[in-house]
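note to self — DONT lose this again. spent like an hour looking for the file last time. sequence + predicted structure for the chain T wanted, 234 res
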Amino acid sequence: PRGAKYSLDEIQDLVKADNGMQNLTPEEQQEYIDKLHEHCALQNMSVCATNTAAARDIQSTLDNVFKMLDGLAVRTGIYACLFASHGHVYDTTQATWFGTDNIMDFWEDVLQMEADEITRKLEQWACMSGCSMFLLRHDIRINYANFSIAIKEKLGVDIRGWPEDIPFQSPTSINDHNALLKLRNGLKNGSCHWFRMSPCQWEEYSAHLAVHRKKGEVVGKARKKCSDTGVPRK
């Protein structure tokens, strides 16, 4: 059925039944391993198409993390806690918390705050900060082709730390695997990130564009004219 996945045993049986997968040379084996690593890297950085898909992904991943932390606590005696919240108001994921053993008593005994209260505050903060300032409007999409006008000038949002050797474009348009991983790592570690421009920066940038417009220069990417431009419409 659509969306179903093979189990590990089923995959192993398929490999055993495929004559082309038998007696592989070390180079061929390494090629398959590299392709698997590439596929995993792309899967890890892929964006969910809908909020429902994102919620399922979050729940599944968190369940695995909880099990791993529980097992780690049993094996090593480690104390660990985790708080998680959705990042914008259109996300249906419920904010939650997790702790091993009696670690959650720490928050009440030392900081006099219950875990539920911390989670609520985290949820409020997450939905009001960072990129959520423009994600709160579900009709907005990052316009990479005309970023300077559609996003930077209009919304006062800019990006800092984009790799210099990678042209600024939608990640879906980047075909170089190494470049894609470099951008992904930068976004992950925070060296590349979105930020809200200060009122002074926003005003200066708008004034800068106004000077170019006054000179008759085209600012940003000009929109293509419709093929029926000038034709009367009923």
